[in-house]
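Fold these two proteins, one after the other.
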Amino acid sequence: MGSGSLRKVKDLATLSFVESKANAALLGPPGVGKTHIAVALAVAACRAGYSIYFTSLDDMVRNLKAAEAAGRLTSKLGSYLRPAVLVLDEVGYQPLNRDEANLVFQVISKRYERGSIILTSNKAFSEWGEFFGDEVLATAILDRLLHHCGVISINGPSYRLKNRLGAIEREQDDAA
């Protein structure tokens, strides 16, 4: 992580973005530490007395769809709207259909300027139209999400892959 990104993480760690009900987005390829940073920020916010809800985007969408089918959507939405900080992990890993994207829009728009979101994504914002299956809906989501948002792009090799490749190389050296 570059010094600029490190400085941005330290700024987020002050939790001023939570106090002002702003958002934080951590972007980059798999394995660069986005989720670790999101969890660390959530733990810091929890220790500071803020309520937290951590979920993957896919789990949130699945839960909202099940609640909608059971006629309990408003109640289930509340579980994502109540906490001071909602952590949405792995945004962009699975494409969404229009109905699913609309459920995400409901959460984002209802939290707008009322509570913070920390999200992690392997997709650049320019790719969100494709991921959400609708450019207009993606633009509406991004408009609310990014209006008050600290964005950190993290690049570099996957820690998991780097560690695994190192272990494989050591195993091969030992076998030789």
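Now the second one:
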Amino acid sequence: MSRLLILLGLVLILLGLFWGPLTRLGLGRLPGDIVIERENFRLCIPVTSAVLVSVALSLLLGLIRLFLGR
């Protein structure tokens, strides 16, 4: 359990470090992402971006499990 938490922490740190380059790829502004803008209000619901990140992380974790033999 502790290894999983450490791995999760490292993934979050890496995600934070790469947030700038990831936004240049268009995450958060893909077709299917919902953006509602009003006078003093902006609501972003990144549906497509969340699905894309989820699939990528699932593939990455699957590969890690495959190579670690668990």
